[in-house]
Write a structure and sequence with these properties.
The complex is a heterodimer of chains A (195) and B (213). Chain A is mainly α and 195 residues long. The radius of gyration of chain A is 20 Å and the shape is globular. Chain A starts with a helix and ends with a helix. Chain A is built from 8 helices and no strands. In chain A, helix 1 (2-22) packs across helix 2 and helix 2 packs across helix 3 (51-67). Chain B is elongated. Chain B is built from 8 helices and no strands. In chain B, 71% of the residues lie in helices and 0% in strands. The chains are: A mainly alpha (195), B mainly alpha (213). At the A-B interface, helix 2, helix 3, helix 4 and helix 8 of A face helix 1 of B.
């Protein structure tokens, strides 16, 4: 009985925070994400026994929540919406893992670094790209596509514009905005690290 | 990936927060889209369709039932697509269009049987069936584009069922509109062409599903 009322309280609190987040309240949003993370983590562990992989799913779920936060209807309960996203991402993870296990072979030697510094530049760039991956997902889609195509995959502006179906001018504008937004995000997370 | 990385991600997401307008309930969005589609298609029908012939054909209960089942398949599939596009609605919505679809297929097949599985009454031949095929594709594609545009706002987590349901919806609506320009009963070739056109639209939806995500 007590736990039922506790979960009702939690549901009401999450719904209140999410309503505020939909209105643009960043503090409520951060509070909500921190509050739901243990719940998402417990759901993720149903799909991945490995804690590191489960944490990967948690981050996937958080990114998805951010991307589709407008699909939560404030007249409906919040937990089933969140649980549905976690289940979807957990299933996606299982599918991806089984696909990788079926078609890919692990090559340990591929991760070796080499004495010549120039030889390591490419893998360094790849690691940097991996590090900013969670931040990229925060960017609006057109900005993300522009940044990935030009700055990560090294396409020319014209090629990237053709590939993403944007005009060259629109791509340049999106690229500029993406770099600016990313710089802000990286600076914010670095300054937090120093504290 | 560590819990510390998750903390960082939460900070990044909170800082990148912009206000959003929650989507309307799926049924409301579906009805709004269907109303808009009715206006577009209705304008075309008023201008070009032979409504008297359509009414005369529908005096036959089987043909009237076939028309109703076609329309119902389209409407339920479109509503199902909207429900499937948001995370917390039942996945069982994907089966909602199946009963009217079965009725549509059954009544169309019955029409063929009435001709003793013949290849059609005088006047019906492959040329006209190809016209039906082209008609369904040409009406479905713009309707599908309009529907994708609206469904895309929900950024569905599993785009395939949404795309297939949407495609079935627009193909069935196109087949319903075709009834206004189809002054003869379905033959085996007609039915095959209608089925082929619906399958082509479904295949196109399968290929383009990522547009929704």
């Amino acid at each position: 009985m007590a736990s039922e009322s506790q979960s009702q309280q939690q549901e009401a609190s999450w719904a209140r925070l999410m309503r505020a987040a939909q209105g643009g309240d960043a503090l409520c949003y951060e509070q909500l994400l921190r509050s739901v993370t243990p719940f998402i983590r417990s759901l993720s562990r149903r799909y991945c026994r490995d804690p590191a992989l489960a944490e990967d799913v948690v981050q996937d779920v958080l990114l998805t929540v951010h991307r589709v936060r407008h699909t939560w209807d404030p007249r409906r309960p919040f937990s089933p919406w969140l649980a549905a996203i976690a289940a979807r991402r957990g299933i996606d993870r299982i599918r991806r893992d089984s696909r990788i296990a079926r078609f890919e072979v692990s090559d340990e030697a591929a991760y070796e670094t080499f004495a010549a510094p120039a030889a390591n530049q490419e893998s360094g760039a790849l690691r940097a790209a991996e590090a900013i991956e969670p931040l990229l997902a925060v960017l609006p889609e057109r900005q993300r596509l522009a940044l990935e195509a030009v700055k990560i995959r090294g396409l020319s502006v014209a090629e990237a514009a053709r590939e993403s179906g944007q005009s060259v001018t629109a791509l340049k504008v999106n690229l500029h905005r993406a770099v600016k937004a990313l710089r802000r995000l990286v600076a914010a997370s670095d300054s937090k690290d120093e504290h | 990936m560590t819990e510390r990385a998750t903390d960082k991600l939460i900070e990044g997401l909170s800082q990148a927060l912009a206000p959003v307008r929650p989507l309307r309930p799926p049924v409301v969005r579906a009805l709004l889209w269907l109303t808009a589609a009715t206006f577009c298609v209705g304008a075309v029908l008023m201008r070009w369709a032979n409504l008297d012939l359509f009414m005369a054909r529908n005096s036959d209960p089987r043909l009237a039932l076939e028309c109703a089942a076609t329309l119902l398949t389209g409407v339920t599939a479109v509503i199902a697509a909207f429900y499937l596009s948001v995370p917390d609605r039942s996945g069982l919505w994907r089966y909602a269009p199946l009963p009217p679809l079965a009725l549509w297929m059954a009544t169309s097949s019955l029409g063929c049987l009435e001709y003793g599985m013949g290849w059609g009454p005088p006047g019906a031949h492959l040329g006209e069936s190809l016209h039906c095929f082209r008609f369904i594709i040409m009406v479905s594609v713009p309707l599908a584009l309009l529907l994708y545009l609206v469904l895309r706002r929900a950024r569905p987590l599993a785009p395939l069922p949404v795309a297939l349901s949407a495609a079935l919806g627009v193909a069935a609506l196109a087949a319903f509109v075709l009834q206004f320009f189809h002054p003869f009963d379905s033959t085996v070739i007609d039915l095959s062409m209608h089925g082929a056109a619906v399958l082509v639209v479904l295949a196109l939806a399968g290929v383009t599903r990522r547009v929704l995500a």
